From TrEMBL:
It comes from the Eukaryota. Residues 606-780 form the PCI domain. InterPro entries: EIF3C, EIF3C_N_dom, EIF3CL_C, PCI_dom, WH-like_DNA-bd_sf, WH_DNA-bd_sf. Residues 17-57 have a biased composition (Acidic residues). HAMAP family: eIF3c (MF_03002). Gene3D superfamilies: Winged helix-like DNA-binding domain superfamily/Winged helix DNA-binding domain (1.10.10.10). Keywords: Cytoplasm, Initiation factor, Protein biosynthesis. This is Eukaryotic translation initiation factor 3 subunit C. Belongs to the eIF-3 subunit C family. Residues 1-16 have a biased composition (Low complexity). Residues 1-81, 810-865 are annotated as: Disordered. Component of the eukaryotic translation initiation factor 3 (eIF-3) complex, which is involved in protein synthesis of a specialized repertoire of mRNAs and, together with other initiation factors, stimulates binding of mRNA and methionyl-tRNAi to the 40S ribosome. The eIF-3 complex specifically targets and initiates translation of a subset of mRNAs involved in cell proliferation.
Length: 865
C-alpha cells in the first residue's frame, strides 16, 4: 500500500511528468509550456471525476485505511489517486489579472470612477508582467476596449444631461480618459482586431500572428540574448530585462524605449544606472538626427537625476553629461533644420519620426539647452562646495570650469543663431539666462584671467561664427566685454537679472580700481533701497559688491569713504554669513535642518571668496585713522561724547586699554590696537611701524603704494591728533615746527590746519605772513562747571518731555494751549539757548580743551558774563 499523496510506478508516470513540467518550467520551452499545462489540467479533471465515482461505489473508508490505496489495482486504482495541482507563477499572475478585471467591472456597475482609475493602474502594471514581446494578454485588451466604450457612454450622457459628479469621480474619469487614450494607442493593432471580431480574437492563439518555427527548432536563451550584430556575438552577451529576455535595440524601437524611461523617472525602485546603460546603447544605434537629439536629451537628464536628493553628482557622470551636451550642440550646429526650443510641441507618434513637410523649414524638438547648461553649472558649484579647497583635488576640479565656459559660449551662440529667424518663437528669457551665466563666471576675475578664458573658448568656435552681443573682437579688453554683456541685459531684461547685471559690472569696476565709476553706478541704481525685496543670492551679490567698492576706496586713499562703505558689513560681526563664505554658529540659536541645508547650498566656492582677514584689517585701519583724532577732539567735553564712528573698533580699543599687560602684537587686531595707542600718544612713527608690519598687505596689488599711502595718512592724522590734544597749551605755533615734527611739507601742514579751522574743529587763526597758528585763549571750564552744564541740559530735556506728555494727555485742550503759549513766551528770555554744538565763531567765548566751545544753557551765559 502507498499513500494517496505519493506516486507509484506504472500508469502514473505520465501524470508525474506533467506535474514536474508544471513545477519546473524553463524559458527554453515557453511555447510548449501552455499546451502541456492544458493537457495536464484535462487529465487531472478526468482523474478527479473517476476518483469521485470510485469513492462513491466503494463507500467511505474509516481510519488509516482511507489514506491507503491497494497497489494491486494497477488500472482502476491508479486513476483514483488525488492530484495536487501547483500553479506556476504565470498562472498566478493571470489569476490576479482576472481579479482586477472583475473589480473594474463591479465598479462600472456603481459608476465608481475613482476605484476604476486605481484598479486600472494595477491592471496596466500586471499586464506588463504578462506581456509577450509587444503583445498584451487578450483579457487585458478586451477590458481596455469595453472600458473605453463605457467611458464614451458616460461622457455622452454628461453632455446630454449634465449632472454634476463629485470631485473623486470627476478626477477618476479624467484620469481614466487620459490613460485609456495612451494605452489604446500603444496596443492599437490588438484593439482594432478585437473590435473587428471579438470572439475570433479571443479564440485565436498567440502564435497565429507570428512566423511559425520548425518543430525541431527551439528558441534558446543564447539566441534571444544575441539577436544581431557580429560584435554582439563576439561579446557573448547583451542587455536583458528583469525576466532575462533580451531588449531589442533598433532605430524603430528607440522612441518607445525613451517614453518608457521618461515615464519611469522618479518612481521608487527605478535603477537609474540601468536606464543610462540602455540609453547609451540607444544612442549607438540611433541613425537620424531627430532620434540622436531625443536620446541625448533623455540621457543628459538621466545623468542629472543621479545628483538629485541633496547628493553630489559623481564626477564621471558630470564629465559624461558635459561631453554629451557638447555633442548635442555639435549635432544642432551641423543640422540647422533641427531646432531644440522650449515652445515646441511634443511628438506623440512613437512609430514614426517627424519629417519636413512642404513649406516647413524646421523640425522642432521640445527641450531647453539653457536648462542643461544651468544644471551643469550648478552641479559644478555643488561639487566645489564639497571639496576641501586646500587640496590638489579642488584645483583639478576647478579646471573643468574652462570646458564649462566653452559650453556656455556655444550655447549662447546657438540661441543667437535661432533668434535671428523671426518664425521661431525663441523666449528672450532663455537668452538672458545664458548671458547671465556667462557673466557670473567672469565678473569676479582679473582682466588677465578673463582674457585667457575667452581666448581658449573662442579657439574651439569656427572662425565664421561670431556673436552680436559680445563680438570676437573684444577678446583683448575684458572691460568692454563686461560692459557689452551688462548693457545687453540692461536693455533686454528686468527684475532680478537686470539688478544682478548691474551689480556684476560695479564689482568688476571696483576690482580694477575705477572707484568713481563704481560709486556713481551704485548710487544711481538705487539698489540700496530695493535690495531687501530681492532673493537671497542677489542680496549676497550686493554685499560682495559693497565690500569690493569699499576696498577700492581704500586703495585710492579715501579713508572716510572706505570706512563708511564697509561699516554695514564689518560692523555687524556677521561677515561670513553676509558674504556667503561660511555659516556662523550662534549660541542658543534654533536652526532647522532645512534652514541649515539651504545655508550650505548658498555658500560660494572658495575661489570666489573675499579675504575676510584683509577686509577686517582695512576696516580697523580706517576706523583707527578716524576715531583717534575724534577721541582727542572730544577730551572732557560732553558735547561730542556721544559721537561714535565705529562701535566695533571702540569695543576693541576699550578691551585693549583694560589689559594690565599687553605683549607684542601677534595678529592683525593686535597690530592695529598697538598702532592706535601709539598714534594717540603722538608717536606716529611707531604707529607706521606697527601698521607696516601687518603681513596681510602683501595680498593687495601694489603693496608698496598701499604702505606709502598709509604712512601719509598716519602723518596727517597724527598732526590733527597733536593739535586737538595740545592746543590749550600753546599761544602760537610755527608751521615750520609742525612740518619738522611730522615730516610734512609746510604747504601740507597749512592745508590741514586751514581745514580744521574752517570746519570749526579748532579755535585758532592762521597767520600767513609769519606762518604761525595763533590759538584763541579763554577761561577753561572746571569739572564742576562742565557737570553743571550737563545737568542743565538734562533738566531742560526732562521738562520738555514732561510738557509734551501732558499735551498728549489733554488732547489739545485750551489749557494745554495756554500753557504752551506761556512757556513759549518766557522760556528763554534769560538768554537764547542755541543747543549743544552751536556756533563757535568769535573770540570772546570760552574755550574747552581741544578747541570746543560751549554756547548753550543759562549757566553757560552766567559763566560768560
Amino acid at each position: 500500500m502507498s499513500s494517496r499523496f505519493f506516486r507509484g510506478g506504472g500508469d502514473s508516470s505520465t501524470e508525474s511528468s506533467s506535474d514536474e513540467e508544471e513545477l519546473y518550467t524553463t524559458e527554453e520551452e515557453e511555447e510548449e509550456e501552455e499546451q502541456e499545462e492544458q493537457e495536464s489540467s484535462e487529465l487531472e479533471d478526468d482523474d478527479d471525476e473517476e476518483e469521485s465515482s470510485s469513492d462513491d461505489e466503494a463507500g467511505p473508508k474509516k481510519g488509516a485505511g482511507r489514506f491507503l490505496v491497494d497497489v494491486a489495482s494497477d488500472s482502476d486504482d491508479s486513476e483514483a489517486e488525488l492530484v495536487t495541482k501547483v500553479k506556476s507563477a504565470k498562472d498566478k499572475r493571470f489569476d490576479e489579472l482576472e481579479a482586477i478585471i472583475t473589480a473594474i467591472q463591479n465598479s462600472q456597475k456603481i459608476n465608481d470612477w475613482g476605484t476604476i482609475a486605481n484598479e486600472f493602474d494595477k491592471l496596466s502594471r500586471q499586464a506588463v508582467k504578462l506581456q509577450d514581446g509587444s503583445k498584451a494578454p487578450k483579457s487585458y485588451i478586451k477590458c481596455i476596449a469595453e472600458l473605453e466604450d463605457y467611458m464614451n457612454e458616460t461622457l455622452a450622457k454628461q453632455k446630454v444631461t449634465p449632472k454634476k459628479m463629485n470631485a473623486t469621480n470627476a478626477r477618476g474619469l479624467n484620469a481614466v480618459k487620459q490613460k485609456i487614450k495612451k494605452t489604446t494607442k500603444e496596443y492599437q493593432a490588438q484593439v482594432d482586431a478585437f473590435r473587428k471580431d471579438g470572439d475570433a480574437f479571443m479564440e485565436s492563439s498567440d502564435e497565429d500572428d507570428e512566423l511559425p518555427l520548425p518543430k525541431s527548432t527551439k528558441l534558446k536563451l543564447q539566441d534571444a540574448v544575441i539577436p544581431e550584430a557580429a560584435e554582439d556575438e563576439e561579446k557573448g552577451f547583451s542587455i536583458v530585462d528583469k525576466r532575462g529576455k533580451a531588449i531589442p535595440f533598433s532605430p524603430e524601437s528607440i522612441q518607445k524605449h525613451l517614453r518608457a524611461i521618461i515615464e519611469s523617472r522618479g518612481r521608487k525602485g527605478t535603477d537609474r544606472n540601468e536606464q543610462i546603460k540602455i540609453m547609451e546603447e540607444l544612442n549607438r544605434v540611433a541613425e537620424t538626427p531627430y532620434l540622436k537629439i531625443r536620446v541625448l536629451q533623455t540621457l543628459i537628464s538621466a545623468r542629472f537625476d543621479l545628483g538629485s536628493g541633496g547628493s553630489v553628482m559623481p564626477l564621471e557622470q558630470w564629465k559624461a553629461a558635459e561631453k554629451e551636451l557638447g555633442a548635442l550642440l555639435t549635432l544642432l550646429e551641423a543640422n540647422k533644420d533641427h531646432i531644440v526650443i522650449e515652445t515646441a510641441e511634443e511628438w506623440e507618434d512613437d512609430d514614426k519620426v517627424p519629417v519636413l513637410g512642404p513649406g516647413d523649414k524646421y523640425i522642432t524638438v521640445p527641450g531647453s539647452v539653457v536648462s542643461y547648461i544651468e544644471r551643469l553649472d550648478d552641479e559644478l558649484t555643488r561639487s566645489l562646495q564639497n571639496i576641501d579647497p586646500h587640496t590638489p583635488e579642488y584645483i583639478e576640479r576647478l579646471t573643468d570650469e574652462t570646458s564649462l565656459y566653452n559650453t556656455i559660449l556655444r550655447g549662447l551662440l546657438y540661441y543667437e543663431t535661432i533668434q535671428k529667424d523671426s518664425s521661431l518663437d525663441v523666449p528672450q528669457e532663455s537668452l538672458n539666462r545664458i548671458v547671465q551665466r556667462r557673466l557670473d563666471h567672469i565678473y569676479f576675475k582679473p582682466a588677465q584671467v578673463v582674457k585667457i578664458l575667452e581666448e581658449n573658448s573662442w579657439k574651439q568656435v569656427p572662425d565664421e561664427v561670431d556673436s552680436a552681443i559680445a563680438p570676437r573682437g573684444l577678446l583683448g579688453d575684458a572691460g568692454k566685454l563686461i560692459h557689452s554683456l551688462c548693457n545687453y541685459l540692461f536693455n533686454k531684461s528686468e527684475g532680478i537679472i537686470r539688478a544682478r547685471a548691474m551689480l556684476c559690472q560695479i564689482y568688476f569696476l571696483a576690482l580694477h580700481d575705477e572707484y568713481y565709476k563704481a560709486r556713481d553706478m551704485m548710487l544711481m541704481s538705487h539698489l540700496q533701497e530695493n535690495i531687501p525685496n530681492f532673493d537671497v543670492a542677489t542680496q549676497i551679490l550686493y554685499n560682495r559688491t559693497l565690500v569690493q567698492v569699499g576696498l577700492c576706496a581704500f586703495r585710492k586713499g579715501l579713508v572716510y569713504d572706505a570706512q563708511n562703505t564697509l561699516q554695514d558689513i564689518c560692523g555687524s560681526g556677521r561677515q561670513k554669513e553676509l558674504l556667503a563664505q561660511g555659516v556662523m554658529m550662534q549660541r542658543f540659536s534654533q536652526v532647522s535642518p532645512e534652514q541649515e541645508r539651504l545655508e550650505k547650498q548658498r555658500q560660494l566656492p572658495f575661489h570666489m571668496h573675499i579675504n575676510l582677514e584683509l577686509l577686517e584689517c582695512v576696516y580697523l585701519t580706517c576706523s583707527m585713522l578716524l576715531e583717534i583724532p575724534l577721541l582727542a577732539q572730544i577730551g572732557s567735553s560732553p558735547d561730542i561724547k556721544k559721537r561714535v564712528i565705529s562701535k566695533t573698533y571702540r569695543r576693541m580699543l576699550e578691551y585693549h586699554e583694560r589689559q594690565i599687560f599687553t605683549g607684542p602684537p601677534e595678529n592683525t587686531r593686535d597690530h592695529v590696537m598697538q598702532a592706535s595707542k601709539a598714534l594717540a600718544a603722538g608717536e606716529w612713527k611707531k604707529a607706521i611701524h606697527f601698521i607696516h608690519n601687518i603681513k596681510i598687505w602683501d595680498l593687495m596689488p601694489s603693496t608698496e603704494d598701499i604702505k606709502a599711502m598709509l604712512a601719509k595718512q598716519i602723518q596727517e592724522e597724527g598732526l590733527r591728533t597733536y593739535l586737538f590734544t595740545y592746543a590749550p597749551f600753546y599761544d602760537t605755533l610755527a608751521i615750520e615746527t609742525l612740518s619738522t615734527m611730522f615730516e610734512l611739507e609746510p604747504a601740507k601742514v597749512s592745508a590741514v590746519v586751514s581745514k580744521m579751522i574752517s570746519h570749526e574743529e579748532l579755535a585758532a587763526a592762521l597767520d600767513q605772513v609769519t606762518e604761525t597758528v595763533i590759538f584763541r585763549k579763554g577761561v577753561e571750564l572746571s569739572r564742576l562747571q562742565s557737570l553743571a552744564l550737563a545737568l542743565s541740559d538734562k533738566a531742560s530735556a526732562l521738562i520738555e518731555t514732561n510738557e509734551r506728555t501732558l499735551e498728549v494727555r489733554t488732547q489739545g485742550s485750551a489749557n494745554a494751549f495756554s500753557r504752551k503759549d506761556g512757556r513759549q513766551g518766557g522760556q528763554r528770555t534769560g538768554g537764547q539757548r542755541t543747543g549743544r554744538g552751536g556756533a563757535r565763531t568769535g573770540g570772546t567765548g570760552q574755550r574747552q580743551a581741544g578747541g570746543t566751545q560751549f554756547t548753550g544753557g543759562a549757566l553757560g551765559a552766567a559763566v560768560r558774563g
